[in-house]
Amino acid sequence: MKNTLLSLTLTLIFISAGFAQKEEMAYKDASLTIEERVADLLPRMSIDEKVAQMRIFHANIGIEANDKGKLQLSERVIEKLKIGIAGIKNPGEHLSPLAAAKLNNELQEYIIKNNRWGIPALFVTESYNGVDAEGCTRFGRPITSAASFNPELVNRIWDVVGREARLRGMHMCHSPEADIVRDPRFGRMSEAFGEDTYLTTQMVVNAIKGVQGNYEGLGKGTHIGAVAKHFAGYGQVLGGSNFAAVEISQRTLIDEIYPPFEAAIKDAKTLGIMASHGDLNGIASHGNPELLTGVLRDQWNFDGYVVSDSNDIARLYYFMKVAETPEAAALMGLVAGIDIDLYAEDSYAYLPEMVKKDPSIEKMIDRSVKRVLRTKMILGLFENPYVDIKKVKNGVRSEQALNLALEADLESIILLKNDGNTLPLQKESLKKIALLGPLVNEGTQKAFESVLNDGMSVTALQGFKLTDENNSVPKLVTTDAAVLDNMVQTAADADVAILFLGGDEFTAKEAYFNNALGDRATIEPLGAQDELVRKVKALGKPLIVVLQHRRTLSINTIAEKADAILDGWDLSEFGDTAVAKIVFGDVSPSGKLPVTVPRSIGQLPFHYSMKEINKKKGYLFLEDGPLYPFGHGLSYGDFEYSDVQLSKNSLTPTSEIQVNATVTNNGKMTAKEVVQLYIKDEIGSVTRPDKELKGFEKIELAPGESKSVTFRITPEMLEFTGLAMEKVLEAGDYTVTVGTSSAVGVTAKFRLEK
């Protein structure tokens, strides 16, 4: 009888334990809501485990593949992973997609098995030319794709980025940049989408929707989460110098800087936001609760996570000098609303000990950990943490993705100048072509040869480099006169010279915190480029310049001397092929400038939507206006704008107006045109922008074809921050311009009645 009772007791204990275990593991039950699962998991975690979910470290501290391709971890990494981790930056970035996928599967398995609750980690990448990792499709930079004025194209590009990154085992992307960039001294200019609020908003929303698979791809395991950055005002640093102060009026913040971020949250559902390196009007961004909680959470209802930029919470103490101790800096970041500490060992690492002294801190920790766990569950990582290796080979660098990179280049290249219809070149009239300049690369000649007729020859000569190509602090190099003479002679021997000029990855780059420079105090072309232009022009032969660069350049000599100028910014791996196709007329250029091109750095700040009063006076000894205005871009078509009509002459707060304009291609070639809509508020209670882009549409017209393009004007488009720092809609007169750039178009007027 005793044995029977003992057996029954043990059975009941095991059954009870089984039920308890099942109940304990409710967070693993995918049938529950994410909120229910997070609520179940969080109380189980120790304070150390919670804080681990608020930290990201870089894989370069000891995650690599050994000679056999197997995961190899340093002692430092092993120690970090004992209690789990929020995420790891760039694991496997230098491996092929397949090798990276295998490594990241092993890494994720190790992390899950070696923390008590089996919590997976977020693997994080970035995207400036596609996925920033070995073996992925290389697209043009964001500002290049912005020149396409084609949001749908940007959506498709970032869809590929999301898919290729997920197949490597990535889950989040510290991109895209929602910053407005208006200072070409700033080395990171090309990482964003340009100077205009509306254009940037359209591009950012489509980039996020693309990379996140319209949000649905997150849980399906096909796409990754976006982290829009840098909130807020980054790119507006004084002097164009990274880490410098940011001074922006509150009105400008609300009307021009915030909208791309607000749309990223409300329209695109970005999973993350990254804070800005610097301060904002004297308040360090990483310690700014009004910004990171008041605006993000209270005003916009953002429910994702906020991550610091590299080491920036700790820098509240030793760089920004707004915290008296490292612990005070950690608390300041936590109070402000930073959920994840990126890289620092001297910031959130202090939180467990700080909780012992002040238990109330744990409530804020719980708030942040909930957001991180929620993100991991949205991504489906508790159910499906691994990459399907069988899908990697065909899913990365597919033919469709490579074709898209070329398509994007063809839509993004801008024809700045074309005197006498120099372009397109007629193949039948040419025998020998010279490709010259520091931006000629190994594939340039081959790309041009691929589009030429038999009997034509190409000579490619780089001649000189712009710098010594040091990644940290590059130095200018001197160009020997004999080198220039050789290049000029090569041009003299050819029927036409095409000069590849501008800047490269060493002349415009991120100025990292230590031992790196990337910003410039001048924006003229570096080195012997202008001299080369003058010497080749003196030959009396057609001179074509192809610009490649990562910051706006004051190309005064080039603009004066060249017969034709193509601006490619920073194109994809197929950039030279795209340039060749446009040079010889296989495709008409259709890109438009996403920024204003100044004549001199002395004109800064200088963007098309400045207040009208800024344009009252010019400068001594300098021609007024820009070299090329925002939205400018010529075509091989000949577009005529006419018959601009408004559906009515007045607007009320509850109505809208339709704007129609007819666009006709009077040219001899099928071409695409970006039809742009600008609105000017003639009289405001505060000084208003000269004009603002409020819509655009890219159309394609055959020779002789006309199309009526329609835009809607709604009251919301006319709102701005008024005298009382609240959004207002003011009665008054408005001018509508529909045209080919911010400087050229047909106009009509209407009145807002209240």
- Oligomerization state: single chain
Biggest sheet strand order reads: 11-8-7-6-5-4-1-12
| Total strands | 28
Query: Tell me about the biggest sheet?
Result: 8 strands, parallel
Shape: globular
Mean pLDDT: 95
Radius of gyration: 28 Å
Q: Compute the number of helices.
A: 23
- Give the strand content: 15-25%
User: What share of residues is helical?
Assistant: 25-40%
| Low-confidence runs | 1-22
Distance between the termini: 92 Å
User: Structural class per helix/strand content?
Assistant: alpha/beta
Give the secondary structure arrangement, pairings included:
Elements: H1 2-24, H2 34-41, H3 47-52, E1 55-58, E2 63-65, E3 71-73, H4 75-80, E4 87-89, H5 97-113, E5 122-125, H6 142-146, H7 151-168, E6 172-173, H8 197-211, H9 216-220, E7 225-231, H10 250-257, H11 259-266, E8 272-275, E9 279-280, E10 283-284, H12 289-299, E11 305-307, H13 315-318, H14 326-336, E12 341-342, H15 351-357, H16 361-378, H17 392-395, H18 399-412, E13 414-418, E14 432-436, H19 444-449, E15 457-461, H20 481-492, E16 496-502, H21 529-537, E17 543-548, H22 556-561, E18 564-567, H23 575-583, E19 639-646, E20 650-651, E21 657-665, E22 671-681, E23 692-701, E24 706-713, E25 720-721, E26 727-728, E27 732-739, E28 745-752
Parallel strand pairs: 1-4, 1-12, 4-5, 5-6, 6-7, 7-8, 8-11, 14-15, 14-16, 16-17, 17-18, 20-28
Antiparallel strand pairs: 2-3, 9-10, 13-18, 19-21, 21-24, 22-23, 22-27, 25-26, 27-28
